[in-house]
């Protein structure tokens, strides 16, 4: 794979599902997940020469995806606030669509709604550790923090999530 590592098309084939699923869990919106995936691989193409460790290409791409998701979320929030201030009317938030196959699962919807109310950092840690099954080391690399911080922050994020879904165990 090392010789193909500089081929963006190959990287896309290998990792676009991981990026898309991360973005989908992060935003709970297919459209936003597609935008994040597209923008992530555009950034990968532009920054490929900055990749230092070829063995960490997956975590490098996912950290770009995380930063892209945060940036897009921040931009959308600013747009909504600007529109709201300019029109002096509250903007209706778009109704997001969860995955069709889990749409009927009320418990998942409750967890997803609670997940969306968490801070970006907490949401990202839970997505990486629980929903994508990344190791503590991979999560630390994606977030650019220490493994100890991942452990502590994950525990705290899960506690907050449990409280929001009504499970204080």
Structure commentary:
With 169 residues, the protein is mainly alpha-helical. It folds into 2 domains: 1-95, Rna Polymerase Sigma Factor, Chain: A (Orthogonal Bundle), CATH 1.10.1740.10; 98-169, Orthogonal Bundle (Arc Repressor Mutant, subunit A). 70% of the residues lie in helices and 0% in strands. It is built from 7 helices and no strands. It has helices spanning 8-27, 30-47, 57-87, 106-117, 120-131, 136-143, 147-164. α1 (8-27) packs antiparallel against α2. The radius of gyration is 17 Å and the shape is globular. The model is unreliable at 85-104 (pLDDT under 50).
Topology record:
Layout: H1 8-27, H2 30-47, H3 57-87, H4 106-117, H5 120-131, H6 136-143, H7 147-164
**Shape summary:** globular
Annotated CATH topology of the largest domain: Rna Polymerase Sigma Factor, Chain: A
Number of domains: 2
Assigned CATH architecture of the largest domain: Orthogonal Bundle
Order of H and E elements: HHHHHHH
* Oligomeric grouping of the chains: single chain
Any idea what the CATH superfamily of the largest domain is called? RNA polymerase sigma factor, region 2, helix turn helix motif
Mean pLDDT, to the nearest integer, reads 79
Structural class, by secondary structure, is mainly alpha
Radius of gyration: 17 Å
Low-confidence stretches: 85-104
**How much of the residues is beta strand, in percent?**
under 5%
The biggest beta sheet, please?
A: none
How many individual helices?
Answer: 7
Number of strands: 0
């Amino acid at each position: 794979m090392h010789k193909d590592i500089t081929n963006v098309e190959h990287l896309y084939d290998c990792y676009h599902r991981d990026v898309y699923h991360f973005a989908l869990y992060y935003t709970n919106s297919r459209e936003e997940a597609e935008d994040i995936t597209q923008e992530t691989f555009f950034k990968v193409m532009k920054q490929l020469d900055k990749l230092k460790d070829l063995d960490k290409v997956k975590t490098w791409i996912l950290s770009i995806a995380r930063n892209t998701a945060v940036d897009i979320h921040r931009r959308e929030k600013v747009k909504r606030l600007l529109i709201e201030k300019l029109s002096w009317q509250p903007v209706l938030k778009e109704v997001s669509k969860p995955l069709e196959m889990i749409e009927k699962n009320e418990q998942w919807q409750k967890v997803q709604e609670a997940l969306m109310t968490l801070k970006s950092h907490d949401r990202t840690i839970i997505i990486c550790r629980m929903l994508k099954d990344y190791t503590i080391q991979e999560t630390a690399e994606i977030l650019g923090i220490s493994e100890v911080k991942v452990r502590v922050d994950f525990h705290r994020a899960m506690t907050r999530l449990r409280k929001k879904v009504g499970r204080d165990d």
